[in-house]
Amino acid sequence: MSILTLFVVIPALMLLGLWLSKSLNQVRGVMVAGASCLLALSVWLTIYFVQQRAAGNTDVMLLTASTPWFKPLNIAYSVGVDGISVVMLLLSSIIVFTGTFASWRLQPLTKEYFLWFTLLSTGVYGFFICTDLFTMFMFYEVALIPMYLLIGVWGSGNKEYAAMKLTLMLMGGSALLIIGILGIYYFSGHTTMNVNAIAAMNNIPVEIQKIFFPFIFIGFGVLGAMFPFHTWSPDGHASAPTAVSMLHAGVLMKLGGYGCFRVAMYLLPDAANELAWIFLILTTISVVYGAFSACVQTDLKYINAYSSVSHCGLVLFALLMMTKTSCTGAILQMLSHGLMTALFFALIGMIYGRTHTRDIRYLDGLMKIMPFLAVGYVIAGLANLGLPGFSGFIAEMTIFVGSFENGDMFHRVCTIIACTSIVITAVYILRVVGKILYGEVKNPHFLELTDASWDERVAVICLIACVAGLGLFPLWASNVISDAVGPILANIL
């Protein structure tokens, strides 16, 4: 058994421990212990992977293992990681760990909430470690299904509508995915479901690729909030509880970009080259439309949700540019945005828990009342708009430089249009920071509010450290990702 299986076994043990827990302290203890083990495992995996590459190990995937579990369709539990998987597992572990502390005081039904939260994280981990198409799809569904209950039961606002809309749209995307996956399996010779084995054969006719590429790319693109399939995202984010928003925007949406690159583009390379221009137009719209939409929102969660549409659109945009630099930037953006948006949603949830409003028209002077949370919000905002020294700058500059490497007019015009999102992002971030944090406190009730508690400080400090750490020391992540991007791009181009 590969050590990677621990990423599924530990959450399974957490589910058992939560089910047996009799008190709130036991529930919290199980979550902290499990999340800490997952974080430690992902850190060890990252160090191990870097050491293996430094020692000259050039295998495309490390720690591979395969166990057949449905031979008639050649379905196997196959696992393995490359640089992209490693950083995504690290991101997932950080979000689960900080999300645990962000949900420390959640009421009611705390035990049930953490059960569904852990099941969601199980699907995320399983998706990133698997190399078998059907098993990946199975974990993908495990990650999506708990969202309905997490939003519908523990959410706020129009939560039933948001939960149903999210579920229906993502299930629609899943229907497209299963058609595409079965098409790839059948037309590649129906001998294996392993992603790397199918890519190595590269025997799917171009005409067939053109049929199934849109199924796969749109299926994953729905989760990546690609225009015009993004409408579930703002409603889902706005209604979800804090830690679910963190995991949803920070990790779950990254499954979309990961799947588009690992499955759609890698396994259907000829169609990717011929049809990329269509999706490049849609993702360019996503980047600019999401940023403009954030400018006119008054709800803090909706602002961050539309910001996520813009930033996740930038991931797909960079992947479709198909240069090594842009694709490396896309994965860096997945990592950076996951940390930034988790920090944003954590802070918004903490502010809402005190003020009972997310409407920026009724928030002011928070810097005087809760300086820790306010400073955290400023840092998150500066990272989001791409200030040098934070992760957002590294990711976005890598994307735009890599995208501009394409010498034709079409790609360069799309790049210039996408670059305008930097200015638009600065507009809505600075507007919100100035409105809610500075000025006089007009609501006398706010003067009675308290600053962050110890559990909230743990979550915020960890995320700020990661955002700043990636911004100041990005080379290790860039090298790990670039080594993994190379073989995939070689197959596409």
UniProtKB/TrEMBL annotation:
Superkingdom, taxonomy of origin: Bacteria
NADH:quinone oxidoreductase/Mrp antiporter transmembrane domain boundaries: 131-414
Pfam families documented for this protein: Proton_antipo_M
Record's bilayer topology term: Multi-pass membrane protein
Residues spanning the membrane: 6-22, 29-50, 75-101, 113-131, 137-154, 166-187, 211-230, 275-296, 303-322, 334-352, 372-395, 415-438, 458-477
Keywords: Membrane, Transmembrane, Transmembrane helix
Compartment annotation: Endomembrane system; Membrane
Family the entry assigns: Belongs to the complex I subunit 4 family.
Protein name: NADH-quinone oxidoreductase subunit M
